Amino acid sequence: MGIGSWMSLWFALALPVIIILYLFKRIYIDTPVPSHMLWRRVLLNMEANRPWQKLQNRLLLWLQLLAAALLVLALMQPFIWKTGGHQGHTVLIADTSASMMALPQAAEETEEDSKLAEMKRKLNTYIREAGADEEITLIRLGSRPEVLLTRENNRETLSRTIDGLSAEYGKAAYHETLSLAAALTRGEEGRVFLYTDTRWPEQAGNDGIVFEVPVQIVSIGPEQTANAAIEQFGVKRSAGEEPESTGNEDSDGTHYGVAVIRNDGPASELQLDLYGDGKLIASRDFTADPGRRTTVEFNSIPSAEVYRLSLKPEDGYLLDNESFAFLEQAGATKVWLISKGNLFLEKALQLTGAQVTRITEAKADGTGTAEPPPIPESKPDVIVIEGTLPDYAASGAWAKLLAETPQWMIGGADECVNLEHAETVTAKHPVTRYLQLKEPPAGRLIDAPIPAWGKSILTVGGKTAAYAGTENGRPKLVFLFRLEDGDLTLKPEFPVLVDNAVTWLKSGLRTGLGRAEAGTELDIPVAQDAATAVWSPMDGYALNSGAEPIPAVRMKSGALSAKQPAPSIPGLWRLDVTGSDGEAQPGYWLAVAADPLESAAAPRQDLLNALVADSGQPASGNDGGQGDSDYDEHSARSAEAGDIHRAEAPLLKWIVLIVLLLILVEWGVYQRGRSI
């Protein structure tokens, strides 16, 4: 039971006034007695002036006191709480922003303990205890406002929809969702419940939005203040790293990484683990001051395709505890050319925009043994081998490098055979794109077997002159002829052939697209004949949460559009692109992050006032139905407990009815003389 106006309790002072009036009333009893009893009149006059004796057995007095007390109670506007009493339109707003995935304590808890799971439980509780005729509209607050159900009263449908709610990690549409809720309840009887953790950015409010119905906030989860986050992370090449194209040069080959860590909680001892291609390469321990940002540097780290930074110990908000980075891309492909010298080939490779490094064999020492050239620390994207494979590449570090890098082999040491006829046939392949070779590239071909992974892309005189395929997961191209045995290098098709070859060999590599917020639009430099593409989760939160591959479905004129939305779940993603000919094209890495405002936002203590500003409608942290608009302590406790399905039932009409009955009884008592 509740009281609407405690100020009306002052009217209870009328009760002692009634008693005082009875105390000062002189009451005489007319009774016929014999004359010899006249002396008793003196005693009767004395009793008539005894105050407290006048209150004995005065039924009329008690009836009047009861009626007055009930009238005072009516002025105090009493009410009782009842379950499922609302019969109108109710709008439920479910906050599914990224901050709702925070865990109450720490990362050892599961997603079943997240704020999102708690919100689902509270929503289902409301649905079970809602009024029989209550119509419910469910709105999802995510990257865009979404009306999931409209004026629905089927409990199973509502519960099934609530259970299917999932978090959205991009920028949340707070203002747009509130505007939609205000529009849906304009000009009608209803109420709005907002289920949220109140971690809203300062600029997220209801500027210009006026609610015409009561607004109620249901707080989800405990207030979280301790959170450490990786705000920025990047890796760049060290100065002077790239070897020039002059021969056997080496460099330090190390990289430089930097991270910025924000600490929203108390001073903490934190640890950063840096991984390169899945291997731990560095760790840093440091003290994070409260409310400050700390810069952590990593010097002399080895080269890797993908770097991952992990922050420990993990807190309740996992989405900002890891970050990914890729080496800065200068746009130039690193090509190593192992050759005794071919100016035409080297210049054609440079025309592709590649940075060419020619590797030559060191001179033999006094024993006649040539020392293998040192391996530069900066790994190549493509290795082109013209002529015989060097002896030093058959084993050791060079053999391992060749096995891990896309290769283009031209010529070789095998015996050559003359051509029976000059008919040249070019197969459809990315290497032979835009080419019309009508003459043989050389006067003779190397007689060598074609491996099982090889696919013939050029035949001359019925014999394979070039084949391509994938060996050990890496693209490989082989020309079964020597460039010096023909005039191919002098033809205008040769630079096109070299460019096609380098581009196709790079398809085994992936360029880092950098970092993007979940769901934002990207400009991806896909080829014109790119037909399909698929995003695959490779690491981080996306992989750990069991995210499924996402096909890139946005098309333009039958081809894959360069504008594609980023995946909607944070983590490391890989985009695999396939051309119209079914061949793989260069792919891309992308680090997807949640909206950083969800990590940095503090609980909005003024959110309730902001929601009802200028609306003139009652609001509370509990149900805010028809009572006082003050957000008192009781309402706050009720909101935390999730007990928002209750409604106020006024008792005024019942009190007035009882008072009328008492007045009738009092009149009957007075008529019968029972008042004396």
In short:
By secondary structure, the chain is α/β, with parallel strands linked by helices. Helices cover 22% and strands 30% of the residues.
Oligomer: single chain
The chain-level structural class is alpha/beta
Q: Give the total of beta strands.
A: 35
Strand order of the largest sheet: 16-15-17-18-24-23-22-20
Radius of gyration: 42 Å
Give a written overview of the molecule.
The protein is an alpha/beta fold. 22% of the residues lie in helices and 30% in strands. It has 14 helices and 35 strands. The strands form 9 sheets. It has an 8-stranded mixed sheet with strand order 16-15-17-18-24-23-22-20. A hairpin with a 2-residue loop joins strand 29 and strand 30 (559-560). Helix 1 packs antiparallel against helix 3 (59-75), helix 3 packs antiparallel against helix 14 (652-671) and helix 4 (115-129) runs antiparallel to helix 5 (155-163). The longest helix has 20 residues, at 652-671. The two termini are 38 Å apart.
List the helices and strands and how they pair.
Elements: E1 2-3, H1 14-23, H2 41-48, H3 59-75, E2 78-83, E3 89-95, H4 115-129, E4 135-141, E5 145-152, H5 155-163, H6 174-184, E6 190-196, E7 215-219, E8 228-237, E9 255-263, E10 268-276, E11 279-288, E12 293-301, E13 307-312, E14 322-325, E15 334-338, H7 343-351, E16 355-359, E17 382-386, H8 396-404, E18 407-410, E19 416-418, E20 424-426, E21 444-446, E22 454-460, E23 463-471, E24 474-479, H9 493-505, E25 510-517, E26 521-523, E27 530-539, H10 540-544, E28 550-551, E29 555-556, E30 559-560, E31 563-565, E32 571-579, E33 584-593, H11 596-600, H12 607-612, E34 619-620, H13 633-641, E35 646-650, H14 652-671
Parallel strand pairs: 3-4, 3-6, 6-7, 7-34, 15-16, 15-17, 17-18, 18-24, 25-33
Antiparallel strand pairs: 1-2, 2-35, 4-5, 8-9, 9-12, 10-11, 10-13, 13-14, 19-21, 20-22, 22-23, 23-24, 26-31, 27-28, 27-32, 29-30, 32-33
Helix pairs in contact: 1-3, 3-14, 4-5, 7-9
Domain VWFA: 90-197
Protein name: VWA domain-containing protein
Pfam families: BatA, VWA_2
